[in-house]
Amino acid sequence: QVQLVESGGGLVQAGGSLRLSCAASERTFSSRVMGWFRQAPGKERVFVAAIAWNSLRTYYADSVKGRFSISKNNAKNTVYLQMNSLKLEDTAVYYCAADETAIISIFEYEYDYWGQGTQVTVSS
Length: 124
Known about the structure:
Layout: E1 4-7, E2 10-13, E3 18-24, E4 33-39, E5 45-52, E6 58-60, E7 68-73, E8 78-83, E9 92-99, E10 113-114, E11 118-123
Parallel strand pairs: 2-11
Antiparallel strand pairs: 1-3, 3-8, 4-5, 4-9, 5-6, 7-8, 9-10, 9-11
C-alpha cells in the first residue's frame, strides 16, 4: 500500500509558528510533485502549496504567500510545510498529497496519493 503520513499539527496562538511534516513510503519515491491542501471547518478543501521534487519549483496560494514555505528532505523522502505568522483563518485539517506527474497543479483531482490529515488550530 502507498502511504503518506502527516505530523506536526497542534494548537498555536495567532502570530506563532508550526512545521508540518509528511513522510512518504518507499512506493511514493517516483512522485514528481508534493502538495499541501487544507480544509477549514464547514468549508471545502483548498490548495495551499506544492513543490516539484526535481526542479525545486514551488507554488503557493495567495492566502499563505510570504508566511508559509514548503521544502523537502531527499534522504527521508519527507516534505515539510513551515507555517509562520499564523492567523485564525489558518485553522484547518492539513493534508499532504503526491502527484506522479512533473507539473505542479492546484487541483486535488490531479494528485494520486493522500495522507490522513493533521489538525492545526490557531487561537486568538
